[in-house]
């Protein structure tokens, strides 16, 4: 489950002497109705039309 990762993060913070406070908190994450496991969201690039292409320019803008 998620407890192994939590313990590893707390241990790493304590070892680095930057852990200020540790307390239990019940998060209300969305759960999958079939597996009863927390749903994990992943950030992805979104497809958006380039403004220069919408206004008739043939050159695509440089990506940052």
What does this structure look like?
This protein is mainly alpha-helical and 64 residues long. It has a domain at 1-41. Helix content is 27%, strand content 0%. It is elongated.
Low-confidence regions: none
Summarize the amount of helix as a percent range: 25-40%
- Give the amount of beta strand, in percent: under 5%
Number of strands: 0
C-alpha-based Rg, rounded: 22 Å
Element-level helix/strand string:
HH
Task: Note the total helix count.
Answer: 2
Query: How can the largest sheet be summarized?
Result: none
Give the integer mean of the pLDDT values. Answer: 78
State the shape: elongated
Helical/strand content category: mainly alpha
Distance between the termini: 38 Å
Write the layout of secondary structure elements.
Blueprint: H1 3-15, H2 51-54
Which labels suit this protein?
64 residues, mainly alpha, 0% strand
Describe the structure in brief.
The chain has 64 residues and is mostly helical.
């Amino acid at each position: 489950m998620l407890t192994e990762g939590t313990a590893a993060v707390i241990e790493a913070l304590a070892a680095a002497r930057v852990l200020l406070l540790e307390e239990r908190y019940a998060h209300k994450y969305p759960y999958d109705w079939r597996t009863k496991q927390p749903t994990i969201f992943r950030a992805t690039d979104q497809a958006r039309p380039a403004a220069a292409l919408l206004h008739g320019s043939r050159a695509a803008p440089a990506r940052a």
